[in-house]
Amino acid sequence: MKIQFLGAAHEVTGSCTLITACDKRILVDCGMEQGADIYENCDLPVSPNSIDCVLLTHAHIDHSGKIPFLTANGFDAPIYSTLATNKLCSIMLMDSAHIQEFEAEWRNRKAKRGGESPYEPLYTSEDVAATLKMFVPCDYKKEYQIFDGIKIRFIDAGHLLGSASIEITITENGITKTLLFSGDLGNINRPLICDPEKPEKADFVVIESTYGDRVHGERPDYVLQLTKIIQNTLDRGGNVVIPCFAVGRTQELLYLIRKIKEDKLIRNHADFPVWVDSPLAVEATEIYSGGLTDYYDEETLELLEQGKNPILFDGLNLSITSDDSKMINIDETPKVILSASGMCEAGRIRHHLKHNLWREESTILFVGYQAEGTIGAKLLDGSPTVKLFGEEITVRAQIERMEGISGHADHDMLLDWLKNIIPTPEIVFVNHGNDDVCDIFSDDIRKAIGCYAVAPYNAAEFDLLTGECLYYGNREKIKRTKPLVRKANAAFQRLLQAGKRLLIVIEHNRGGANKDLAKFTDQINALSDKWDR
């Protein structure tokens, strides 16, 4: 009975854990990494065709995104999840495949011109279609016997529609142990979905730590926050651009905007348009509106009983095609734009940032976690410029963050969730957090609960019968000397481009007033004197 950590170890994304018990190999999640990679990852230590099943906590790509890669390499076994996770994966994994295929097509055009070897996508749409056939939908709180000696149970994690913590009860050689995977635990009192359900028993716990070093503070009034930001931006004549995860956060924001419009809280702009510019978000919104009532909270169910759709309203526009997307910025009407991806690393949001970051009247509003190294994190850290499509864009727009709307439980909520487990677990494994946060939260667990807690590194392996660590994992960080050289070269190339642009600007001023030309000349000379070395 062993557990091995293959992803999200001292990192936030790429969740993947291997359990070996009762002569079975079980993966809990198999996600993609997003953002900067900190530690060298090990390869999957077993062949995909030897994996007996996958247990999936929820549909987010950093938990589900590499399952089709397993399929492409021989995996053919059940994938257990909730029904809502199954439905959301049907659109999210296909969207991911399209991205893989598009990138492969682009790279191969470039490779062909350069005489390089062809690039293979991580997986294809056909791999996703095969993967979706393996899903086995499960209900919350119901126990399922998946193998001799192994039972599973899903409980609501309150993070995303259908998200779950998973209990795994294993009986091997007459000894029974219960493993509990938190998945991503949700914040409380959020729109649409229920609060996380608290567990009651577990011998071993694997818990996330995304916000393991901070607390959200008193729950703010989401509607009031959003109303103020929209009002101020529309009054300036700008756009509110919201980098938004297509699944989950987009639908929560639509719920809040529906209430703002219904209660007529915006003055002088009552009919302001709202655009959802992400085909994936549009499909997800249809799923959220599709009668999955078992996953809604009481307030949402009351709205449905009144005949109200909780996330649809007058003035909502759904952008499907690229032409639809382009028209959003051509139209000068002040508006709210929700677009993916939530960390600004890909997707249509990058186009909206390009058109709005340099505008003082616009606002970029962040409503979710931003992993280190992403464009979203750089903007929140006050970066004066960001690079989009090879162009440096000056940041003049207002950069705002909506407080308290995080989809993750904070430090105190995570501890409270753990404290509900009686007796205390033998070991708590901490993952899915930034490098130092995993260690900080492990220490806090030991102090607050009094049980052994450890933050395993990638490839770390433990014997669950003895509690012994069989391998401590890879603690060597990725060296980044080459990227720094490339960055320096890129910086000098930008300087050369700026010099060429200056010559163009000088030419554009030919025939200008002597007074203006003299002032311009003095500015250039002063700059040259400063940097002449």
Fold topology:
Layout: E1 2-7, E2 16-21, E3 24-30, E4 53-55, H1 61-64, H2 67-72, E5 79-82, H3 83-114, H4 125-132, E6 135-138, E7 143-147, E8 150-156, E9 164-172, E10 175-181, E11 204-208, H5 222-236, E12 240-243, H6 249-262, E13 274-277, H7 279-288, H8 298-305, E14 316-319, H9 322-330, E15 336-339, H10 349-356, E16 363-366, H11 375-380, E17 385-388, E18 391-394, E19 398-401, H12 411-419, E20 427-431, H13 435-449, E21 452-454, E22 461-463, E23 469-471, H14 481-508, H15 514-531
Helix pairs in contact: 3-4, 3-7, 5-6, 12-13
* CATH evolutionary superfamily of the largest domain: Ribonuclease Z/Hydroxyacylglutathione hydrolase-like
Largest sheet: 8 strands, mixed
**CATH architecture annotation of the largest domain:** 4-Layer Sandwich
Quaternary structure state of the chains depicted = single chain
Please tell me the total number of domains. 3
Beta-strand residue fraction? 15-25%
Can you tell me the CATH class of the largest domain?
Alpha Beta
* DSSP helix fraction: 25-40%
Q: How is this structure best described in words?
A:
With 533 residues, the chain is of the alpha/beta class. The protein has 3 domains: 2-215 and 406-471, Metallo-beta-lactamase, Chain A, CATH 3.60.15; 224-401, Rossmann fold (3-Layer(aba) Sandwich); 486-513. Helix content is 36%, strand content 20%. The protein contains 15 helices and 23 strands. It has helices at 61-64, 67-72, 83-114, 125-132, 222-236, 249-262, 279-288, 298-305, 322-330, 349-356, 375-380, 411-419, 435-449, 481-508, 514-531; strands at residues 2-7, 16-21, 24-30, 53-55, 79-82, 135-138, 143-147, 150-156, 164-172, 175-181, 204-208, 240-243, 274-277, 316-319, 336-339, 363-366, 385-388, 391-394, 398-401, 427-431, 452-454, 461-463, 469-471. Strands 6-5-4-3-2-1-22-23 form an 8-stranded mixed β-sheet. It has a 7-stranded mixed β-sheet with strand order 7-8-9-10-11-20-21, with helices on one face. Strand 9 and strand 10 (175-181) form a beta hairpin. Helix 3 packs antiparallel against helix 7, helix 5 crosses helix 6 and helix 12 (411-419) packs across helix 13 (435-449). The longest helix is centred in the first third of the chain and has 32 residues, at 83-114. The chain is globular. Residues 482-488 have low confidence and may be disordered.
